[in-house]
Amino acid sequence: MTASGTESRHIGIHIDRPAREVYDYASDPSHLPEWAAGLGSSIERTDGQWAADSPMGRILIDFAPRNDYGVLDHDVTLPTGETVHNPLRVIADTDGCEVVFTLRRRPDTGADEFRRDAEAVSADLATLKRLMERA
Fold first, then answer.
1. Angle at 106 between CA 69 and CA 26, to 5 degrees
2. Over the range 79-106, which residues count as b (16 or more CB within 10 Å of their CB) and which as e?
3. Dist. CA 125–CA 117, nearest whole Å
4. How many CA atoms are closer than 13 Å to the CA of 96, on its beta-carbon side?
5. pTM across the whole model
6. Strands 49-54 and 57-63: what pairing?
7. Residue 102 in contact with residue 9, Cβ under 8 Å?
8. What whole-number distance in Å separates Cα of residue 80 and Cα of residue 130?
9. pLDDT (tens digit, 9 = 90+) per residue, 73-131?
10. Rounded to an integer, what distance in angstroms lies between the CA atom of residue 119 and that of residue 122?
11. d(Cα 102, Cα 42) in Å, to the nearest integer?
């Protein structure tokens, strides 16, 4: 738990592709439907914002600017208006990389839902790995 009492779980996967290649792919919002099912099966840019029809309803996604540090953080604004910050990193590891997502348990999330969220993130990262390593 963090100082504020919020539980976090770091979910990572090794991808046997160069970090820059993985970052370039994953940082393009138009690729999200290919690997991040939790954010929806389609995404569009409307009025300068990325929006997706997700399993939670219509969401807005605000991405960190492109950078040389592998930071893929993104804020997701839920249909309720609540915004959730999602830390995501691509970390170089010799010829490959580690992709790490920090899942934070929101105060209104029960243990079972938090476990399901972690499983969904793991599945998304596994999909990203399959896509990147099939080349």
1. 30
2. eeeeeeebbbbbbeeeebbbbbbbbbbe
3. 12
4. 9
5. 0.90
6. antiparallel
7. yes
8. 33
9. 999 999 999 999 999 999 999 999 999 999 999 888 899 999 999 999 999 999 999 99
10. 5
11. 23
Token pair recorded at residue 68: 């040389």
> How far is residue 60's CA from residue 39's CA, in Å, rounded to a whole number?
10
Q: According to the 3-state scheme, what is the secondary structure of 61-105?
A: EEECCCCCCCECCEEEECCCCCEEEECEEEEEECCEEEEEEEEEC
State how far the Cα of 49 lies from the Cα of 46, in Å rounded to an integer. 5
Confidence of residue 1 (pLDDT cuts 50, 70, 90): very low
Q: What is the pLDDT of residues 30-69, one digit of tens each?
A: 999 999 988 888 999 988 899 998 888 899 999 999 999 9
Residue type, 131: L
77's CB contacts (< 8 A; 6+ apart) are 59, 60, 61, 62, 83, 84
- Find the helix packing angle between 111-133 and 19-26, rounded to 10°: 120
